[in-house]
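This part of the workshop introduces the protein records we will be handling. The structure tokens are whole numbers drawn from a learned vocabulary of backbone shapes. The record below serves as our worked example for the rest of this section.

===
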Amino acid sequence: MPLIIAGTSSGVGKTTVTLALLAYLCQKKLRVQSFKVGPDYIDPMFHRYVTGRACRNLDPVLTSEDFVQECFAGQTQEVDFALVEGVMGLFDGVGVERGFPTSLPSFASTAHIAKLLKIPVLLVIDCSRLSGSVAAIAHGYSTLDPHLKIAGLVLNRVGSDRHLELLKNALEALQISVFGVLWREDNISIPDRHLGLIPTEELPELDSIISRLAALGKSCFDWERLLPLLQIGEERGCGNTGVNEDKEEISPYLRVYPVSNTRIRIAIAFDKAFNFYYQDNLDLLEKLGAELVFWSPLVDTNLPENIQGMYFGGGFPEMFAEQLANNTSGINSVKNAILAGMPTIAECGGLMYLCDRMIDFAETAYPMLGILPAIATMDQRLTLGYRRAVALQDGLLVPANTVIYGHEFHRSRLLLNPEFSSTKLLFTTSRYDTDEFTGYEGWNILPNLHASYIHLHWGGNLEIPQRFVEHCHQFREVFNHA
């Protein structure tokens, strides 16, 4: 049965522990599938770099409880081991989902996912400022929710042998296993910046970091007891979740078929500037019959040949604004395609790319596509959180009055040009867990364009990718008959 790595709070070392475990397992040539709780894009990049397999996000806000179970069951069919990295502290979620029967755990928390998947928790505790108090923390976390199983602990940032002795003595009466001890001097730092860790594509020293993590994984954990807990049983991930083995009967996500016998090609912007994509979204496009063609707005001077749609994910375009602006041929290629009616999705960083200009943290302005009558400017204020969005009008991805759930995470804002019409606004938004109005969002400048700061995981609404692919087919037909 797999494990879920949880922490007492953010910053206690969940990612370090997870990557150390994954790196050691993969060093031994074992087949391992990783998962990440929540909407994060960057941690899954590191998982994928280590395992060679796409990490899957488990987020019941962006999708559903059923999707979380189905995704986990489906992705653990062909591997021997599975590991889930949690989010924030063990019980930190978004409050109580409407209709959810209990306040423990908070909806979309690590504890919630552990209970959905019926897997035990490996709890990471930062011991750098603790000795005997570690017992109170471990006791509280292990008893707060009687339906949650704490398999054991990882003691992180332990200072000395004497410090470890004090910690273990305090924990002895609780009869909670210690599966790992990471020493303070073993702390491995991965560089970060304004939205979290620096993505894998920008870290030339990453192989060295992973090698150190694998060595840490080998030496700091009790593998004799830990390995059986990570192994997928004979049920191959299905029995643990309560998901019916006959998935054709219960899983619309796994019953996605091509919308046409005709093949279409969709250009996926993928480079150091644009790399925030949920793997499930890309998989859904392929299941619907699309061929995905990856290209780089940073270096490619033209779009790939014979494409019928474009998808620009989020990322860090502000860090590469000058290079993007200098690729005028690439900019013109994208702009002409959009103006010709090609269906295009532009999320967050992609939205910024479509603006008149982009102003970076140094307050330098760079020309961009000019499709949206706005300037994207970087700001110190972080916009972060789940959103409930209601479509004000028909758009490329959703019809009017559709309710969708997404996530915002950016330090930029848009300065709209005076000629911008409010009739082009796409969504009215509120917080996910309350009715608190958070503003208007998304721009419906052209019928073939979806431009929004809100990141969407299509596992929560299969009509979104289906609608996009259908528009791509329609564009193909119009283009072929033009």
Summary: The radius of gyration is 23 Å. Residues 3-248 form a domain with the Rossmann fold fold (CATH 3.40.50.300). Confidence is low (pLDDT under 50) at residues 98-102, 236-248.
